Amino acid sequence: MPSAMTTNDIGGASPLNTNGLCLLSLDGGGVRGLSSLYILRDIMAQLNYERVDEEPLKPCDVFDLIGGTSTGGLIAIMLGRLEMGIDECIAAYSELMHLIFGQKMNNLPVDWAGNIRAQYDSTKLKHAIEHVIEGAGVAPDAPMNNGQTRRCRAFIARLRSYDVTNEDTIPATICEAALATSAATGFFETVSIGEYKFVDGAFGANNPMEEVEEEAADIWCTTSRELRPLVKCFLSIGTGAPAKAPIDDNMLKFLSKTLVRMATKPESTERRFMARWSKELREKHVFRFNVEQGLQDVHMTDYQKRSAIESATYDYLHHSSQKGRVRDCIVNLLGKEGKTDIDFDIVMRAYETQELRSQVIKTIHSSSASSVPGKEPCWIVPFERNHRFVDRELLGKIKRKLFLGRQMQRISIVGLGGVGKTQIALELAFQVKEIFPDCSIFWIPVVDMESVQQAYQNIASQLGIEIPDEDEKDVKKAVQRHLSRPQSGRWLLIYDNADDLSMWSEVSPGLGSEGLREYLPKASSSQGAILFTTRSHKVAQFLASTEIIEIAEMDEHKATKVLKNLLVNKSLVDDHESTKKLLDRLTFLPLAIVQAASFMNENLMDISSYVELLDGQAQDTIDLLSQKFEDEGRYKSIRNPVATTWLTSFDQIRRQNTLAFDYMAFMACINPKDIPVSLLPPASPVEREKALGLLCSYSFIHSPHSGSRLDMHRLVQLATANWLKSINTLHSWHFYALRHISRHYQPNCDLKERSEWRAAMPHALQILHLTSSEPATLDTVDLLSNIGYCQRIDGRYKEAIENLTLALENSVTMLGHNDERSLIARGYLASSYQGLGEFEKAMSMFEEILDQRKSAHGLECVKTNQANLDLAIVYRMRGCPENRKNDVQKSVQYLQRAKELASQGLRYYMRNFGPENDDTLFAISILTQVYLAQGRLSNAGELAQQSLAIHQNVLGPDHLGTTAAMTTLADIYMQRWKLRDAQLLYAEALTRAKKFLGPGHPTILRDMHQMAWTLKLQNRHSEALALMTECVSLGEKSLGAKNYTNEETRQCISDWTVALATLKGSRSSRSYFQISRLTLSHYRNPGTRLKFYFVQLERSNMMLKRRKYYPKVKILGGLSSVRREPKDDPIIREIKDAVNCMTIPRHFSSGEVTLMEGCSVRKP
Fold this sequence. Notes:
With about 1150 residues, the protein is α/β, with parallel strands linked by helices. The chain folds into 5 domains: about 25-335, Cytosolic phospholipase A2 catalytic domain; about 380-550, P-loop containing nucleotide triphosphate hydrolases (Rossmann fold, 3-Layer(aba) Sandwich), CATH 3.40.50; about 555-640; about 645-775, Orthogonal Bundle (Arc Repressor Mutant, subunit A), CATH 1.10.10; about 855-1164, Tetratricopeptide repeat domain (Serine Threonine Protein Phosphatase 5, Tetratricopeptide repeat, Alpha Horseshoe). The strands form 5 sheets. Strands 4-3-2-1-7-8 form a 6-stranded mixed sheet, sandwiched between helices. A 6-stranded parallel sheet has the order 9-11-12-13-10-14, with helices on both faces. Strand 18 and strand 19 (about 1120) form a beta hairpin.
């Protein structure tokens, strides 16, 4: 079907005959909806038969709007949203009815409380609908309105497949919309979408003709609400006339039968509608088809009576009284040449006005042999029509705003340079010329004052206005006076590229006191309209107040269509993956798409090759986007290439606001997405808001996160960098950005600041990348070191090692091994190796740091004792049984060394700072872990309880130091077989720590691993296996598949899966200890077997001995080491005495007290 209306439509045949609205309304009726489909099938078959040698049409190709209620709504979704053919729809609908009405769920219509209840299974209904949607090649969770322009609009209630101005549309998936329209009272349960509850739309409105009428008015004639003059064909199809039946006086029958009939009765709607549309009914624009006989005894759930429905419908259609009506409907639909544009009411008004004018002129000149022809309207437009233009819906919105008011309208369309504003204005001019043949159209390019002056002189000449050559101001004033008069007729004035505010508001030579705005036609002319195109929101608001239309980014569908129209080889877009990549790289910007297509056409290049060029070095991309190309829709004096199209705007910004220019230059040096406002160069709040407002007004940046984060258009960033390079300032801006970010990026472990430095990290990495080819500076060292520190805290050890190694190398080269920067970087690097389990490297580096600290500062120094604690952590982790790569004696030595270092550091902090200091707490935590690793469970338990109490009071429950203390105590409880207590502590610690560390952090993974073991040892096998499986999944994402902890965890899953299956098969016939031994045999990993054996042994010891005795045997990796624990550890006594003597103030510290992952180095 042709899609465009020509000029001949005006003054000749009515546009209604070729482009009028075709609406389809579908009644509800359950299984009887098949009758509606059979009627529509007959109409479509005859329609396609008449269209000889043309592609068969679907209902979505013919009708502009399809609406339905109840199961009619289901059919509307199938035909309109899923764009099914009629035969495909009948098959799917038949299967759907069979599935949902095959068996009743409840025979009684009410429950014992008197509430109406569903008779059929709503779950079956949902599954059946999902099956239909998937059969159409669409995902069931796809949105009803996915933002794409479709061949047809479909709606049910407030659930639409399209947007409607000033109307709320409830966001729903296709499946939710189908369920909502099917929630028939008494048949299915109500459906909730968000805060809305839906029952079947047929309740009181089974014939949706009035709803379709109202919806069409909301779309095509919002202001006038006069829909009837716009309708070419209104087709309503019923589901068969119901039998006449009295209202039952029996309550049960009333609820089960009469209520259903009342909820699905369409006759009264039909009578009201036909009375209002009687004129259109006589003119054969309205058709209602509804089987009158044969379906009275077919209930809406009688799916088995399909043949009876088909037979009755066939008889109805082939009755002599209906054949002529069907033929009239088909003839009407055959005249439809294209889908109806959103502005069709304007077209019809123009046609009616023109017809009336023609009649008046004909009457006036009927007695005269000849008539004087009227003056031709003016046409001053500098470009030819772009026949590849695609965004017609936006044009409809613009035309409505311009021409439906009673006063002269001013509208600004605003958008980024290259987004297509000029093309929109150009297409508008040609369409207005078609709709209003008597309309004069004037185009004024506001490129500079000379262009404006020449345009006004041209307009004056065509209007026949004589102006003295010596007075330029009189030209603009005379044109203004002429267009302000009612006698001037209809006109459209387009100011293109109105970007410079000073031209409109400031006094300049040849201008009045208000700039160009003083010469705009006055509002006394009701037939005039003014359109401005501009890149600046400030200019748009200055010229048109609130009447602003922002040109948004193209969607993928429209952008693909533009690209295909521009390419010589259209088949290139069949490479969907490369096409999507290209459009993403070009940010869907029309000008960039035009340039890319021109380059590919000229060089016979395919899309994937062009994408490879775009993905090269930044300078290569700039060079590519700087290629000149011909564009007939742009001014010769304006730069066409994408890389240079914004240079004029850049100059305007630099003149207007130097801070805005600084922000643009700074943002050209960092990542273009998700820029924290706090990262920008410092300025007062007022000045900052003014600068950002100016950049937003040019659409160079926008704020998708409520002002706290900014995004810069990717191509604008490239163009800005190119501009800075052209004026020889890019290099200096790179180093300014490096220095600024390095000084701004001072992270610590305060949880409140973590989100800030995480957001700043991509930008810090970007500026490091841009300056990587330059000699390193101290700013480079500091930034690399701080980034590595943050990555280490987040458990990104491999990335941290890479950056910290580079920081250390640069620092040593510039400052030497013993400089503070070098020591800090070495400490961060050692902790990162420790996090990865490379303990030998970590120990070596921490030993070097400790030796240097001792020689430089002595033993009584904070930095020396920090180094003691850092080294203690590594020795403790190296000596733990799970990390043992040596014999038991070595482990004992490592743990003894860890105990000495931790005790030394703890005593120093206790003497100098007291037990409430966060460094003291850190030392207590380390010593507790050492005791635990040594098997001194009683000592470790006492210390852990003291530590947790102090942490909770000093740091609060949500501090990471507190959660670390919780997990330490949980570890002790686990080994002492207090499994329930351990599980509760692990669960609480995980809940609190996940808020700050994220699910994949090593600390979280370690605690998940331990909690899974507590569940396993409580015989909660399924829960344990599920948690351990989740732990593996998260660990592989964050630490890599070969990480040492992850390897052990995967082995546990394998063993537990086999053991669980064995337990299920053996539980009924074996005792617990028999099962334990059997389960133990399935553990292939020796460490896992020994761990399982250890907890059983510990449990037995607890059952046989009183808890006050210390165990005589400590298992180290399965080997026994006989010894006794000290009964009265001196350092524990010192801590208890100190705690008893102090009053603990409640406060929250910002220091790091992170233990589980072994990340112990703190900021000095």
